[in-house]
Design a protein that fits this description.
The chain is an alpha/beta fold. It has 14 helices and 19 strands. A hairpin with a 5-residue loop joins strand 11 and strand 12. Helix 3 packs parallel to helix 4, helix 9 packs parallel to helix 14 and helix 12 packs across helix 14.
């Protein structure tokens, strides 16, 4: 039989659950259980086993400060099978079972040692399963080092996902990238041993509203000739975090069979250094026809996204979303836990913000500030990929991308981090899914009225 988890809120009467043995009751009283958020207390029975576990649920104010708070519980428990017992009013078993699952994630690909295992005997909804699988896919892709997750391997992961879902996949690689008129994607990836490619797959009923996801797939970023220092390069396996989050979100959408025509576009490149690397001061024509002056080869993400966004825009979809680990300025502004997003559609932005709060996947709206447009317009080209001065770096990057989206009904851009620098509430350090669960909730409410 599973061991019961009795979840007790600080807002309620702290009387212990009825039916506990005298031994368990004395243990709880002796250990001064006070239902603080995250407090976990196994209760012994007369034979030395675990009779039940008390889990502190704190106050509603405590929980507002720690999204997915229940994800921290599994790491505090001994191996075994558990099940919800007594829970407070308003405790969402489905949402907290998902939080449990996310807290159990460990990246084990390169580990010989078996990790401890705790399980929760609680039915998961179809959506919770899809979210867990999508988040896990995202984390695994980001956590895999670039040696094993270059442009070819990222394309392989996308192909596997597309095949499993019955999506139609097109891979444009090597010289075909240039021949098919994706010059900026080719420019950024041309110096690497693994050639640049564009991943493109389509799923769903063509009569449904068109939704296109564009994910930045820079599988490693040296900075190019504007070489990053070593301490900045150490995390650059995560620079394909936009692509990883895009694939995780696509898995959720396809698993739930949302009534949309989904398209996924991922420019997959490595920004490497060699004799063929692009240079500061070079000017290149984009797919859209706009010329771009290169003032920093380390601002490469917006270049590859520009060509992919131009392609997305050509069929005038109802909604275009770009996800990218794009700027350090976003981290300076909001830190590693809150993801900024940009959107001109006030109603859509408000709905997405509400969704992010509902599912505890934090997002914060930032402005496409019109007076900063001049900052991305150099003297000798249409656009500057790295405006001087360093001001408003996340905003100017978003404004740059918006220049390539004109025909779409709504455009949203997410400047994500894709990484958790330390464990937060039980969700482990490492690759992170940031924004997909909020976006999924928004898409369900926008398109799936059933």
């Amino acid at each position: 039989m599973p061991t019961p988890l009795h979840v007790i809120s600080f807002d309620q009467d702290l009387d212990l659950p009825e039916g506990l043995s005298p031994t368990a009751r004395r243990w709880a009283e002796g250990n001064k259980f006070r239902a603080k958020l995250g407090q976990v207390l196994p209760l012994p029975n007369e034979t030395g086993g675990i009779e039940a576990v008390l889990v502190g649920w704190g106050t509603s104010e405590d929980r507002s400060k720690l999204p997915m708070a229940f994800s921290g519980v599994p790491a505090k428990l001994p191996d075994g099978e558990y099940a919800f017992g007594l829970v407070p009013d308003g405790f969402d078993k489905t949402a907290n079972a998902l939080a449990w699952d996310l807290g159990c994630y460990r990246f084990k690909k390169y580990k010989a040692k078996t990790e401890p295992k705790v399980t929760l005997a609680e039915a998961r909804s179809k959506r919770a399963v899809a979210e867990r699988e999508g988040v896990t896919l995202t984390q695994d892709l980001i956590n895999t080092p670039a040696e094993d997750m270059g442009p070819a391997e990222l394309a392989g992961a996308a192909a596997s996902l597309a095949e499993a879902a019955g999506a139609k996949l097109t891979l444009i690689d090597d010289n075909a990238v240039l021949k098919r008129e994706f010059p900026l994607i080719h420019t950024v990836g041309r110096a690497a041993a693994s050639p640049p490619r564009l991943i493109d797959f389509v799923w769903g009923n063509p009569d449904h509203p068109k939704v296109t996801l564009v994910g930045k797939g820079v599988c490693f970023d040296t900075g190019g000739l504007n070489l990053k220092p070593g301490n900045s390069m150490g995390l650059m396996k995560k620079d394909m975090g936009g692509a990883a989050n895009t694939l995780g979100l696509a898995h959720m959408i396809m698993s739930l069979d949302l009534p949309i025509r989904l398209r996924v576009l991922i420019p997959a490149v490595e920004n490497a250094v060699s004799g063929s690397a692009f240079r500061p001061g070079d000017i290149f024509r984009s797919r859209k026809g706009l010329s771009v002056e290169i003032n920093n080869t380390d601002a490469e993400g917006r270049l590859v996204l520009a060509d992919a966004l131009a392609l997305a825009d050509e069929e005038a979809p109802d909604l275009v979303l770009s996800l990218a680990t794009l700027t350090g300025a976003a981290r300076v502004a909001l830190g590693p836990d809150i993801m900024p997003f940009y959107c001109d559609d006030d109603a859509a932005a408000a709905a997405l913000s509400a969704a992010s709060m509902t599912v505890e996947d934090p997002l914060w709206r930032m402005p496409f500030w019109p007076s900063y447009e001049k900052m991305i317009e150099p003297d000798i080209a249409d656009l500057d990929n790295a405006p001087p001065g360093g001001f408003a770096g996340s905003i100017t990057a978003a404004l740059f991308l918006r220049r390539f989206v004109e025909a779409a009904g709504t455009y949203m851009h997410f400047d994500i981090y894709g990484w958790r620098p330390k464990s937060v509430g039980g969700q482990p350090k490492g690759g992170a899914a940031q924004s997909p669960r909020a976006i999924l909730d928004y898409l369900i409410k926008r398109y799936d009225q059933n």
